[in-house]
Amino acid sequence: VPTDDYEKLNKSEGYLISFNRFLRATRERAVSLKYARDALNYPYTVGVLFVITVNLNDHSISPFVEIDGSQSSEKERNVLFSLDTIFRLDRIRSMEKNQPLFEVQLT
């Protein structure tokens, strides 16, 4: 996440946020953490691991679909969230000392 966007995100704890695009999320924490760590290799970026908690049985609250990697080489299970899905930003916490790597909890 660009540093400027992270600063805005950091001020939004407790507020509702949305992404202006479709959001593909994996249910495999290690895969997501790898992407977040990779962001640390670029200037002016912050590594962010979004942890999204939703009721998978209630599609009226958050429009999403579960997808899997059976059609590709991926074996991870993914969730695709609809355009402009709204989340509550519950908490942001630092994951490592001396590294701009953060966990952002969304519901």
What string, H for helix and E for strand, traces the elements in order? HEEHEEEEE
Computed Rg: 14 Å
Structural class: alpha+beta
The beta-strand count equals: 7
Distance between the termini: 19 Å
**Main β sheet profile:** 4 strands, mixed
Characterize the overall form.
Answer: globular
Q: Averaging pLDDT over every residue, what do you get?
A: 88
* Unreliable parts: none
Largest sheet, order of strands side by side?
Answer: 1-6-7-3
Q: Per DSSP, what share of the residues sits in E-state strands of 2 or more residues?
A: 35-45%
Measured as a percent range, the helix fraction is: 10-25%
Number of helices, where a helix is a run of at least 4 consecutive DSSP H or I residues: 2
Instruction: Note the quaternary state here.
Output: single chain
Task: Tell me what you see in this structure.
The protein is globular. The mean pLDDT is 88. The two termini are 19 Å apart. By secondary structure, it is α+β, with helices and mostly antiparallel strands. The chain contains 2 helices and 7 strands.
